[in-house]
Amino acid sequence: MKHSGSGHHHATRFLRTTGQHATILPDTLVEGSFILSIGGAEQSHVNLADPADIFYEYLRRIGHVVDLAAAPGEPLSVLHLGAGALTLARYIQATRPGSEQYAVELERELLDFVLQKLPLPEGTRLHTHIGDAREALAELPPQVTFDVVILDIFSGPEAPAHIACTGFYEEAAARLRPSGVLIVNVGDEPGLTLVQSQATAMRQVMRDVAAFAETGMFSRRYPGNIILVGTRTPWPAEWTTELLARGPHPATVLAGVDLDKLSG
Predict the structure, then answer these.
(1) How far apart are CA 119 and CA 227, in angstroms?
(2) Coil, helix or strand at residue 125
(3) What is the β-pairing status of strands 100-105 and 125-130?
(4) CA-CA distances (angstroms) from residue 258 to 88, 214, 218, 231?
(5) Whole-model pTM above 0.70?
């Protein structure tokens, strides 16, 4: 994929919704890669030269779940709730060309900024929607359903109450096809109270739920990310085997009764 020199990407944009500044800077260690920061905190990493290469471990884990959602290379219909720098949308286009993707982002300026400075791979079919994640679910055309819905907006215990609840998951599940997968990234503090509440809420809606993370996260001693995966069919045991093999390592997958200690 062609992209302009790094000078073009030294950029800053003011985000009116949150009153913060977003910046895009080249990653000096990885050729062709860029880092999106918001309010001074790193938020996303994009490799324009190789969109199938994901830098952040938690996003790599999500990518591995998406890999299992259908046969390799088969296009998927995917909804991204929380867009960031569209790292996963780029990954899905690279690994499953022709996929139909929707991205919902609260910050109009952020989405414009990312698409302008870090163009998507050629051929990407991405529909963008500005607004609240839950409201967007209701506003999508009624006939639009998805193989995969990815929620990546939780960062710490102050999760939006109208999204961190069973009602939201019911609405998200209603958008899934019969074999569809709901993937939720939960960034949490050591006690894992948010992870626990979200796993409980998802279990009330989905046929099965599993948690996938770096092994140390389940000790409840560190802040970090746990990926919750909801399926409309029984959790496939071979998915556990595959996810553990793909890593990043060390990895743990909790499903079935193993998840009880997390979700109560």
Answers:
(1) 27
(2) strand
(3) parallel
(4) 28, 16, 11, 16
(5) yes
State the CATH class of domain 56-263.
alpha beta
Mean pLDDT of the chain: 93
Q: Are 100 and 75 in contact (CB under 8 A)?
A: yes
Cβ contacts of residue 175 below 8 Å, gap of 6+? 79, 137, 140, 144, 145, 146, 149
Question: Which ranges in the chain belong to alpha helices (H)?
Answer: 57-68, 87-95, 108-117, 133-139, 166-173, 193-203, 237-246, 260-263
Q: Report yes or no: 182 and 215 within 8 Å, Cβ to Cβ.
A: no
Q: Record the tokens describing residue 60, joined without a space.
A: 């790599």
Structure tokens at 48: 């324009």
Taking CA atoms, 15 is separated from 20, 29, 106, 111, 170, in Å, by: 5, 27, 10, 10, 31
Cα separation, 189 vs 145, in Å, equals 33
Question: Exposed (0-12), middle (13-18) or buried (19+): which is 241, by Cβ within 10 Å?
Answer: exposed
Report which residue type is found at 200.
Answer: T
Tracing tokens 């209701």 back to the chain, one arrives at 138
Longest dimension (CA), the chain: 52
Task: Tell me if residue 117 falls in helix, strand or coil.
Answer: helix
The domain segmentation of the chain, as residue ranges, is 56-263
Note the pLDDT tens digit of each residue in 185-221: 999 999 999 999 999 999 999 999 999 999 999 999 9
Q: What is the pLDDT of residues 16-54, one digit of tens each?
A: 888 899 999 999 999 999 999 999 999 999 999 999 999
* Beta strand extents in 123-223 (DSSP E only): 125-130, 146-155, 176-188, 208-214
